[in-house]
Write a structure and sequence with these properties.
The chain contains four helices and nine strands; from the N terminus they run H-H-E-E-E-E-E-E-E-E-H-E-H. The chain has about 190 residues and is α+β, with helices and mostly antiparallel strands.
Length: about 190
């Protein structure tokens, strides 16, 4: 037998590496696939808004969790009603001082970004959007200057913008997308505004 393979420090190092690998996969995010119809039906609120502010703070009974409060303005409410001209969404994670709390797999809403959101369970659920990333659509301008929507899985920022601006890119217009939501609400007897 090779004595180097049976060295106690080697075994501890391998065991530590295995534990880190397993710990990383244990926190993986599982998401139930949702159809467009389910996104519309399960949401309490469907809105289009621009992120005007992100503010992170400690929360929870012992102030040991971090949440980010996303303020949306320039709102268009498609399902539900709002009495305010802004809406605040509470999402898990964020940075407070030198502590950073990150939840891989969750969509990141960016300041100045415009989004269509299928909201459910705000201030109650872990992530208050139906289907996690499935209920988040980024609104961008395509190469022809039209407002189009791209699902959060299409990426964010410059990559999504570049994809939307490619000649011949097949993106759904914001107007057409919202009309599909309104059509589903009308078919289901829901109230649209």
């Amino acid at each position: 037998m090779n004595p180097r393979l049976h060295h106690p420090r080697l075994h501890r190092s391998l065991l530590a590496a295995l534990c880190l690998l397993l710990a990383g996969t244990a926190g993986a995010l599982s998401v139930v696939q949702r159809s467009f119809d389910e996104l519309v039906a399960l949401s309490e609120l469907v809105l289009v808004g621009t992120v005007s502010e992100l503010r992170s703070a400690y929360s929870g009974p012992e102030q040991n969790s971090i949440h980010t409060y996303v303020t949306l303005t320039d709102l268009e409410v498609v399902k539900g009603t709002l009495a305010e001209t802004h809406y605040t969404l509470r999402t898990p994670g964020g940075r407070v001082g030198d502590r950073l709390d990150v939840h891989p797999g969750l969509p990141q809403l960016r300041p100045g970004g415009r989004y269509v959101l299928f909201v459910r369970g705000n201030f109650r659920d872990f992530f208050p959007v139906v289907g996690i990333y499935q209920g988040v659509y980024q609104v961008l301008r395509d190469g022809a200057g039209r407002e189009v929507v791209l699902p959060a899985t299409s990426g964010e920022g410059p990559n999504a913008l570049a994809a939307a601006q490619q000649p011949g890119a097949q993106s759904e217009t914001l107007k057409g997308f919202l009309q599909r939501v309104r059509d589903k609400l009308g078919a289901a007897g829901g109230a649209a505004r």
